[in-house]
């Protein structure tokens, strides 16, 4: 079962905020007045400075949690959001179990849940590692590398990537079992990729033109990634943010978290 955490966070923040506001505006002054009149305090002003001992449990919890929820909502919606890598499609750059940080304002600010853009700060560039909502199932987040921006002609043939008719520079580094490690350069980024030594899947080959407002994305594990070669382009409306750092690695509940992979993402 997929839990829509952004929606849950928005709802909890709104509910606790409304309860706190209603209690503070309507019910707390009445409790303080009754408390002052009881003789336990000399005046209503003294009662206002008390800890409000008759405050209902729900109001007390809402007052305590609303500021925390609000800060978390603002941070993860507009600044930085954590994600966990669930598959090996971005090997060797990102491993299964890597916990990454995603910059939410590099490409502009969007409202949580509704995803409406309220400020535009820039567009994804070739070479960026981008988190986006999977076009086939927008409730699921995917992460891939941007290889084509609006107007680009992207082609993939015989384990060679082409952008606008030019081959992307790719140098063989080493053989790792049944895969070959390469170093590639796209835009201003130099990064590692993996290619299976078996024949390329015919469905992964072809040529595509990236339309306006869309991006062509691929996994660095080129022969083990379902990406734009299979299900199409990523709309600008589905962009979440740019991945920029690994802050922890924790592959499973049966293992301990480690920090040996902490660092910036290339």
From TrEMBL:
The active site is at 89, 144. GO terms for molecular function: serine-type endopeptidase activity; signal peptidase activity. Residues 59-247 form the Peptidase S26 domain. Its EC number is 3.4.21.89. Coiled coil: none annotated. NCBIfam families: sigpep_I_bact (TIGR02227). Keywords: Hydrolase, Membrane, Protease, Transmembrane, Transmembrane helix. The keyword Nucleotide-binding does not apply. It catalyses: Cleavage of hydrophobic, N-terminal signal or leader sequences from secreted and periplasmic proteins. It is a multi-pass membrane protein. It comes from the Bacteria. CDD domains: S26_SPase_I. Its main location: membrane. The gene is lepB. It is found in: Membrane. One of its GO terms (biological process) is signal peptide processing. The chain crosses the membrane at residues 6-22. This is Signal peptidase I. Signal peptide: none annotated. SUPFAM superfamilies: LexA/Signal peptidase. Belongs to the peptidase S26 family. One of its GO terms (cellular component) is membrane.
